[in-house]
């Protein structure tokens, strides 16, 4: 496999805040790679630096072997980027938007016209190209947002939360489009989301980051088999939660979130663990075995606490 | 170059579909010109400025425009200023500088909507990105000012006594200054709401201080000196000379044009240093 994106020790600080520590990623040609993390985990910061939108505080990114800081224009020609926001001019038509964004990638004349027609068809907007974007539905805008990123037929397509606010039909269409772009055009896709089922359906490999640190990077199957099973134990409000957590820790890796203890792997010495927890004076109000899934992996690695960061 | 042409096309299309901006750029200034022109011509002599404008005027031997002494005017008291030679440039400068607000709004909207983020991922330098926003508005501003002065001549009968070429060069400096001020305003504003509130007041105060509504020669000495702190004053001094003085050319308004350009360069440098394409 050929690596198309390689980050080495990529990090970003905002003043004293370390938004991203040292990210080492290797993404291979033609794959759909998922980048997962809760709100504020550092996903957007990571891809902003991978695209050359932000300057890293440390580390490097290579796109098809080209260091994006050393030769930014060359590297950026190989990149297509659809931001999380709908980065479109609402008062322009789809064709006018595409023509403008195509021109900033150096397309002009007949080449630009062909690229616009192709991108509109890929996005399923062939018949609505002359309509103003403000008249579009959320799903149509998302598809156009994607179309603007693929006009110049990049080798690498970076999609930041591309399905926020879209209907199931548009989501399904976007998935099919992304799969087609990888299979027919050999594009490499980096897909960030916190919709686990999307990532599980689309991506073969994923990386999970939180608090600016890379927590795991592997195939979906390997992550699920390694971290995917678990047990949630709800304890009463009055008990000593730390003592209950210590008791649960004897049977596996246990984390506390509010009044819920998450233990993995599930099932190992279950009876003994319950006895040990109850011996601390805790009353177990509920117990749930979690089905192995990417979501379980995600919650196991990133915890259950709420993230209210933007 | 093709990026700049595409940017001009895009900004013109956006402007043509923004009724509010069109009214602000083309309709309101003409209405103001008509009203101010009528007000000025209604004071005594039909071609004289109002008494308020002459109240502070120095010695009678100094040539005047609408009662305003003009340092560059030839020493001939026979020059009769046209009231629209006060109203047209005054309102053209006032509303011309409001272009800064449109420019700043464009910068801030593009930041909010993620368009800068998308553009920063493209193979363009940050300087080209800035120019792709500024150059279209210089072109738009030139069209606006040409139309406003054209209406001044054709509809209101305003006379241009000096060089039309010099008028064009001076206008280019004024438009450039307004556009660069827009960049600076954008660098201080996080949201469109902030800009809409504070920006329009700032521009109005600058216009008032610079003599766009009440000619600065009618102002008290202290205020007259203070008004030189805003580019509007230099812009208007240049316009008055070019409109009134027979044969006035570039050399006659060089200091005014240079000062306006100086403001433009200052705004551009500060704006380029302070502007952030993205909020951290």
3D architecture notes:
The complex is a heterodimer of chains A (310) and B (280). With 310 residues, chain A is α/β, with parallel strands linked by helices. Helix content of chain A is 36%, strand content 28%. The longest helix of chain A has 18 residues. Chain A starts with a strand and ends in an 8-residue tail after the last helix. The model of chain A has no long low-confidence stretch (mean pLDDT 89). Chain B is mainly α and 280 residues long. Chain B is 68% helix and 1% strand. Chain B is built from twelve helices and two strands; from the N terminus they run H-H-H-E-E-H-H-H-H-H-H-H-H-H. A two-stranded antiparallel sheet of chain B has the order 1-2. In chain B, a hairpin with a 2-residue loop joins strand 1 and strand 2. In chain B, helix 1 crosses helix 7, helix 2 packs antiparallel against helix 4 and helix 5 packs parallel to helix 8. Chain B is globular and about 55 Å long. Chain B starts with a helix and ends in a 6-residue tail after the last helix. About 11% of the residues of chain B have low confidence. The chains are: A alpha/beta (310), B mainly alpha (280). Chains A and B meet through helix 2, strand 6 and helix 3 of A and helix 1 and helix 6 of B.
């Amino acid at each position: 496999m050929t690596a198309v994106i390689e980050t080495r020790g990529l990090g970003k600080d905002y003043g004293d805040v370390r938004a991203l520590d040292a990210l080492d990623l290797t993404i291979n040609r033609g794959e759909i790679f998922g980048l997962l993390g809760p709100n504020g985990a550092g996903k957007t910061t990571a891809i902003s630096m991978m695209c050359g939108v932000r300057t890293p505080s440390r580390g490097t990114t290579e796109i098809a072997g080209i260091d994006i800081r050393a030769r930014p224009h060359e590297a950026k020609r190989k990149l297509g980027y659809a931001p999380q926001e709908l980065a479109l001019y609402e008062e322009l038509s789809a064709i006018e938007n595409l023509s403008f964004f195509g021109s900033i990638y150096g397309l002009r004349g007949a080449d630009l016209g062909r690229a616009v027609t192709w991108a509109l068809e890929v996005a399923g907007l062939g018949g609505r190209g002359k309509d103003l974007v403000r008249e579009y539905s959320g799903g149509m805008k998302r598809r156009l947002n994607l179309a603007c990123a693929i006009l110049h037929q990049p080798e690498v397509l970076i999609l930041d939360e591309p399905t926020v606010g879209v209907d199931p039909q548009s989501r399904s269409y976007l998935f099919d489009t992304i799969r087609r772009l990888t299979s027919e055009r050999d594009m490499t896709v980096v897909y960030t989301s916190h919709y686990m089922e999307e990532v599980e359906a689309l991506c073969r490999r994923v990386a999970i980051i939180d608090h600016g640190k890379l927590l795991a990077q592997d195939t979906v199957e390997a992550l699920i088999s390694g971290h995917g099973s678990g047990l949630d134990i709800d304890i009463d409000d009055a008990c000593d939660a730390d003592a209950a957590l210590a008791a649960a820790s004897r049977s596996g890796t246990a984390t506390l979130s509010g009044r819920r203890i998450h233990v993995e792997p599930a099932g190992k010495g279950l009876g003994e663990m319950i006895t040990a927890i109850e011996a601390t004076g805790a009353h177990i109000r509920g117990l749930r075995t979690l089905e192995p899934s990417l979501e379980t992996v995600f919650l196991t690695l990133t915890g259950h606490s709420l993230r209210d960061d933007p | 170059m093709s990026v700049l042409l595409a940017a001009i096309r895009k900004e013109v299309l956006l402007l043509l579909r923004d009724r509010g901006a069109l009214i602000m750029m083309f309709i309101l200034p003409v209405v103001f010109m008509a009203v101010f022109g009528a007000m000025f011509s209604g004071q005594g002599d039909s071609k004289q400025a109002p008494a308020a404008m002459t109240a502070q005027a120095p010695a009678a031997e100094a040539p005047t425009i609408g009662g305003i002494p003009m340092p560059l005017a030839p020493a001939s008291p026979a020059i009769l200023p046209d009231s629209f030679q006060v109203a047209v440039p005054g309102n053209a400068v006032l509303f011309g500088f409001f272009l800064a607000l449109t420019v700043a709004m464009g910068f801030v909207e593009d930041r909010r909507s993620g368009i800068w983020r998308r553009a920063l991922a493209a193979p363009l330098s940050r300087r080209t990105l800035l120019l792709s926003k500024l150059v279209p508005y210089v072109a738009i501003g030139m069209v606006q000012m040409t139309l406003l002065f054209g209406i001044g001549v054709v509809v209101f009968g305003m006379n241009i006594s000096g060089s039309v070429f010099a008028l064009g060069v001076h206008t280019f400096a004024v438009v450039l200054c307004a556009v660069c001020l827009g960049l600076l305003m954008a660098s201080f504003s996080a949201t469109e709401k902030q800009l809409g509130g504070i920006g329009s007041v700032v521009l109005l105060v600058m216009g008032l201080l610079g003599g766009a509504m009440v000619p600065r020669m009618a102002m008290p000495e202290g205020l007259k000196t203070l008004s030189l702190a805003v580019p509007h004053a230099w812009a208007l001094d240049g316009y008055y000379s070019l409109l009134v003085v027979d044969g006035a050319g570039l050399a006659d308004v060089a200091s005014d044009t240079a000062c306006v350009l100086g403001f433009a360069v200052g705004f551009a440098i500060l704006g380029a240093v302070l502007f952030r394409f993205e909020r951290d």
